[in-house]
Every structure is written in structure tokens, then in C-alpha cells.
């Protein structure tokens, strides 16, 4: 008898954090939460997670948690999906323990930027790295990526498809993305894509808590990146902006070492400042 995919009422989403993949020693001095993108899985962020956990021979090393978002990977399926429930799930993860670093890719970046408003008082400081956040998508870009993700969730392509589309991907990268497609609930893709289409999440760049610092990493527009720097320049709560030359939208797959290096450099910078100092010295976005 074939296995069953269990479907739950959406209200249960707030009461279960679901499965996750873990990297690094639990006794590590730092904790990081990594959030995958739409139609992704914890394994599509494995390169970043592994490098972050193993980076360096000396502390600080990271204990890295990468949850499967609802409707993705081996997480439960629900009868409906919406951004509010997704944000609540991420907020619950941030309440579960105190993280030093949150890295979010694409959808995961948006969820991180939304959820940081709900972090408890136990957080004295938090670094957030938002990779290719779909802050403001033009209609044609939304339709292009939305169509590709929706089609892949309904009828997963072969690894060769992704290797042709993204020449920097290895066969392992492409195979892990195909597996994510196979495990993804098509309903979560269509539901989130249709909510507020075309996406505009600029509201999450305003009034970021003063003890939260934000680094944004974008891909290369000439190689398939979607983040336009001009969409961020008027938001002073963003601390740093970097672009990765040669990267498509899928920066974590193609340049994991760059993501880790930029994240660690960002965490190390101004690390001795108090929360009050961070609040008073918030800088305007700068393309570095």
C-alpha cells in the first residue's frame, strides 16, 4: 500500500515546528538558523550550513539548524498556506532558543525580516543575512519564477534541466533541488505566489528593531539575480548590501563560501558595540 501524505488543519501550524536538519556540535558557542526558499528544502541550503558549522578550527563555531518550512521537504502538509502562518512558524523557531545569526534565502529572507519584529527580550542582538530577498518583484519576474517553481512542484524536472539552466550547479546541487521539488506540496507554491502578487515586501524594511542588524546579499542581475539595489537605497535600517558577481538568484548553491565569508565578516564587525550604540550608529545602506 502506498504511503500517505498527512494533511493537517492550518491552525496546527502554530503548534509544531516540524522537522529540521542539523549541522555542527550542539556545544558550539554560536547558534544559527537558516531558512530555505520557496520549493526548496533544508538540503538545498546544505552547502552554506555545512561550511558555517565547520568554519575555522577555533571558536566561534556554529550549531546550525535548518528547518523544513510547512509544505516543504518532509514537513507536514496543511489544507491551506499563507504568509501569516509561515511568519508565525519562523517566529516560533526564534522563540525556541536564542540565535546569534539568521540566514534566509529568497522566501526565507522575507520570513526572517518579518519575524524579527516578534523576537523576545532574551535577544540582546541578532544578525540577519537576507539573500536575494524578493522585496519588490516586477510582474514579469514574478510570473517567470512563479511559473518555473509551480511547474517544478507539479512535475519535477530532471537534474539535467537545472544544470542547463544554471551552469554553476553541480549534479549534486541539481539532484537535491529535484528532490526538493518532488517533496514540495504544489499548494504551498501556488498559494504563496498568488498572495499579494506581484510580491512587494518593502514594509519589512521599515522599523527594523535597533538591536537587529541586517546584511542583504544579491545575485548578479546579468546572470539571473533578481535583487535591484535601487529598491533598497531608501531604507536606512539596512546595514550593508553586497552583490556576488556571477551569481544567479541561487547564491547559496553557487557561492556558499561567499555567503559564509560575508556572514562571518558581518557578525564580527562592530561586535563589541552595545545595543544602545548600535541603535545610535545605524548607517545608511551602502553598496560594498
The neighbouring-strand order within the major sheet is 2-4-3-6-7-8-9
CATH superfamily: Alpha/Beta hydrolase fold, catalytic domain
How much helix is in the residues?
A: 25-40%
Enumerate the spans where pLDDT stays under 50 for 5 or more consecutive residues. Answer: 1-10, 271-288
Q: What summary fits the major beta sheet? A: 7 strands, mixed
Tally the structural domains: 1
- The percent range for strand residues is 5-15%
Shape: globular
Counted beta strands: 9
Q: What distance separates the N and C termini? A: 56 Å
One letter per element, helices H and strands E, the order comes to EEEHEEHEHEHHHHEEHHH
The whole-angstrom Rg is 18 Å
Query: What's the CATH topology label?
Result: Rossmann fold
Label the structural class: alpha/beta
Tell me the name of the CATH class: Alpha Beta
What is the mean predicted local confidence, pLDDT? 88
The second-level CATH architecture is 3-Layer(aba) Sandwich
**Distinct helical segment count:** 10
For this entry, give a set of tags.
288 residues; Rossmann fold; 7-stranded mixed β-sheet; two-stranded parallel sheet; 10 helices; 35% helix; globular; disordered N terminus; AB_hydrolase_1; Alpha beta-hydrolase; hydrolase activity
Amino acid at each position: 500500500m502506498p504511503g500517505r501524505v498527512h494533511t493537517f488543519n492550518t491552525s496546527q501550524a502554530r503548534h509544531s515546528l516540524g522537522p529540521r536538519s542539523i549541522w555542527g556540535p550542539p556545544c558550539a558557542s554560536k547558534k544559527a538558523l537558516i531558512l530555505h526558499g520557496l520549493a526548496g528544502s533544508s538540503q538545498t541550503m546544505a552547502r552554506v550550513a555545512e561550511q558555517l558549522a565547520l568554519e575555522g578550527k577555533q571558536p566561534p563555531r556554529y550549531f546550525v539548524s535548518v528547518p523544513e518550512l510547512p509544505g516543504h521537504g518532509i514537513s507536514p502538509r496543511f489544507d491551506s498556506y499563507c504568509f501569516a502562518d509561515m511568519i508565525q512558524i519562523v517566529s516560533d523557531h526564534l522563540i525556541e532558543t536564542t540565535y546569534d545569526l539568521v540566514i534566509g534565502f529568497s522566501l526565507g529572507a522575507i520570513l526572517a525580516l518579518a519575524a524579527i519584529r516578534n523576537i523576545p527580550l532574551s535577544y540582546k542582538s541578532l544578525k540577519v543575512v537576507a539573500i536575494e530577498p524578493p522585496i519588490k518583484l516586477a510582474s514579469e519576474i514574478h510570473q517567470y519564477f512563479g511559473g518555473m517553481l509551480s511547474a517544478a512542484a507539479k512535475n519535477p524536472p530532471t537534474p539535467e534541466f537545472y544544470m542547463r539552466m544554471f551552469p554553476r550547479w553541480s549534479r549534486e546541487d541539481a539532484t537535491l533541488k529535484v528532490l526538493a521539488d518532488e517533496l514540495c506540496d504544489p499548494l504551498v507554491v501556488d498559494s504563496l505566489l498568488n498572495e499579494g502578487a506581484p510580491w512587494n515586501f518593502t514594509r519589512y524594511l521599515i522599523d527594523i528593531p535597533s538591536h537587529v542588524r541586517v546584511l542583504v546579499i544579491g545575485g548578479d542581475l546579468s546572470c539571473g539575480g533578481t535583487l535591484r539595489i535601487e529598491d533598497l537605497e531608501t531604507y536606512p535600517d539596512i546595514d550593508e548590501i553586497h552583490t556576488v558577481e556571477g551569481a544567479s538568484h541561487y547564491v547559496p548553491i553557487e557561492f556558499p563560501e561567499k555567503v559564509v565569508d560575508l556572514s562571518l565578516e558581518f557578525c564580527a564587525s562592530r561586535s563589541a558595540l552595545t545595543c544602545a550604540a548600535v541603535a545610535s550608529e545605524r548607517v545608511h545602506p551602502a553598496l560594498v
